[in-house]
Write a structure and sequence with these properties.
Elements (H helix, E strand, L loop, with lengths): L2 E6 L8 E3 L1 E5 L2 E2 L5 E4 L5 E2 L11 E5 L12 E6 L2 E6 L9 E5 L2 E7 L2 H11 L4 E5 L30 E5 H8 L15 E3 L12 E3 L3 E10 L18 H4 L4 E2 L2 E13 L4 E3 L5 E2 L1
Parallel strand pairs: 13-14
Antiparallel strand pairs: 1-2, 1-14, 3-4, 3-19, 5-6, 5-12, 7-8, 8-9, 10-11, 11-12, 13-18, 15-16, 15-20, 16-18, 17-18
Length: 279
């Protein structure tokens, strides 16, 4: 098996960035869901409420070291024909405050007030762009982590886990059942891998590369975001309707596996086309 795509989503629910090298730390892929949008009540906003979020592109630039993503100094947001650059190294503007991601409260700060206004204008909805405080430790659900190390498994602003893993064969199997095929970006995985067996990710417990070991801990329950065309923001009933016919468990539609970071080497990264050991 080998890795066929690596993607990070710097701002929750905005477009992702395809990578050839994905640096990893305890919180998961570096810069993944490190920012998000919140409403006037400081609760997270996603494509569930605002489908137009899928149209906003993200880019990390100005690397202090060649091809080293973790050295990026600027975050670019593009909406329509306009864009705005955010200085990643700039200090917080104002005080830190609590923001809500599902049932979790996290310390964050407004990254850039101009960016907040830029996004609010495009969305026609009042939002703030916030960044998770570096010291914040949002713990994954201990039911899905080793009891002796549950406090070590942390996550950014992702829904609940540091990474999402899906096999290409699973998408091929789904598309064979659909009238109109869908792209993998509907499901927003961080890592995809090849293979002939659909839903192999449901059967394995560990995914291991040369530098990173991931533990697959929980099937991913899917929501209406999968029904949003990520290039147009148009919505339909698919693929959720078809998936509900054969991928429903305890009333929830499952597709892909959530993963936690089990082991890391210093300066660890995943690499496109890198061989994997699955067990």
């Amino acid at each position: 098996m080998k890795i066929t795509s690596l993607t990070i989503y710097p701002v929750k629910s905005l477009k992702g960035i395809a990578l050839e090298r994905m640096p990893i730390d305890k919180r998961g892929p570096i810069f993944d869901r490190e920012w998000m949008l919140v409403d006037r009540n400081n609760r997270f906003v996603s494509q569930r409420e605002l489908a137009k979020l899928c149209l906003i592109e993200t880019e990390l630039t100005d690397f202090s070291q060649a091809r080293q993503l973790e050295s990026a100094r600027r975050l670019i947001l593009r909406a329509g024909k306009k864009d705005i650059a955010i200085n990643i190294d700039a200090p917080a503007q104002g005080q830190t405050f609590e923001v809500k991601v599902w049932n979790d409260l996290c310390q964050a700060y407004e990254q850039d007030t101009n960016a907040s206004s830029f996004l609010s204008d495009f969305l026609e909805y009042d939002v703030k762009l916030v960044r998770m405080c570096e010291s914040e430790r949002r713990i994954v659900d201990p039911k899905y982590a080793s009891p002796d190390g549950a406090q070590d498994h942390i996550v950014g602003f992702a829904d609940g886990f540091p990474l999402l893993v899906i096999s290409d064969a699973s998408l091929h199997d789904l598309n064979a059942k659909l009238e109109y095929p869908v792209e993998m970006n509907r499901f927003r995985p961080n890592l995809t891998f090849d293979g002939d067996e659909p839903y192999l990710e449901d059967k394995i417990k560990v995914l291991e590369s040369k530098e990173v070991t991931l533990e697959l801990v929980k099937p991913c329950a899917r929501c209406q975001i999968t029904t949003i065309d990520q290039d147009s923001a148009d919505t339909s009933k698919e693929p959720l309707r078809t998936l509900s016919n054969y991928r429903k468990i305890d009333g929830k539609v499952m597709f892909g596996q959530n993963a936690i970071v089990k082991e890391l080497k210093a300066g660890a990264a995943l690499h496109l086309l890198e061989p994997l050991v699955l067990r």
